[in-house]
Fold:
Amino acid sequence: MNKYILYPGCSMESSAKAYMESMNTILEPLDLRFEEIDDWNCCGATEYLGINLIPAYALIARNLALASKQMNGTRTVVAPCSACYLNLAKADYYMQERPSFGEKVNEALEAGGLSYVPGTLDVRHLIDVLVHDVGLDAIRNAVVRPLKGLKIAPYMGCMLPRPDYQHRWTDHEHPTELDDLLRALGADVIDYPLTTECCGGHMTQIGPETAFELIRRLVADADERHADLMVTVCPMCQMNIDAYQNEMNRHFGTDYHMPILFFTQLMGLAFGRKPEELGIGTELVSSRNALANIGVEVPVTQEPAAPRKKDEGLPMPRRWVKNEGKEAVK
Structure:
């Protein structure tokens, strides 16, 4: 059994829960074992890096320090989330490339009794491990329900293939790893030139019009190429294109209904698992009609969410304040 250290990241327990559920179903058929990092913390996403570098990278490197204590025969950390993968890989790379910077990060880690020697761990994305360690032949051999006839637009997103510190990907602009994996499942993979174009990231909150245009381009191109659905490797990409497709349609007066699923959900289907075991049916743009084309019945689990009202702000955690020596919630 191939063992790896898993850094799940925050989204895998919330907005990308279907990613986690479907990932867990493919481990046993592929003889994989993932051991989660004990006491891991958020990688800081992207914004924190623009505020203060040392605290930001100390936050990320804390996970590397904890993982280095759990190696037990493996030095590979697997991150299913593209943003998490990029942050962990950058922290390890910059601490090696800039020793003085690495020393400052370790000084910050010392406050928690931790330290990390850069280069100790090998940080990799889930799809990298599946394609290059497990191998396409093993994946093909695990298929019991080929996805023949399902036309898929493979969407890698912008964060995964670049910057490519360890030269893992076939190409920075048009990598073939996701295409190859989907073909191993028996799917019909369309030529999708926008595979590494940006989904807008957090622009949905900062500049919605810009974000809607980026989402429209991705969906329109997949639709014009007659894709039944889009498949991604990134929680942010899936959330943006799925959750904001309705608002994008309202903005442009379009009527696209392009489902976007995680590649692990398609793997689970091909491996014979039921849609409800894979989180299929919880997406907002339903994949029901697309999967019906290959004889897969998707349960109706929820109604699509209504678009957020313009006067609503982002959900924020309650703030703790001091009140006469006692903590109170404000």
Observations:
- The longest helix spans residues 208-224.
- The first strand starts at residue 2 and ends at 6.
- The chain has a mean pLDDT of 91.
- The CA atoms of residues 39 and 66 lie 8 Å apart.
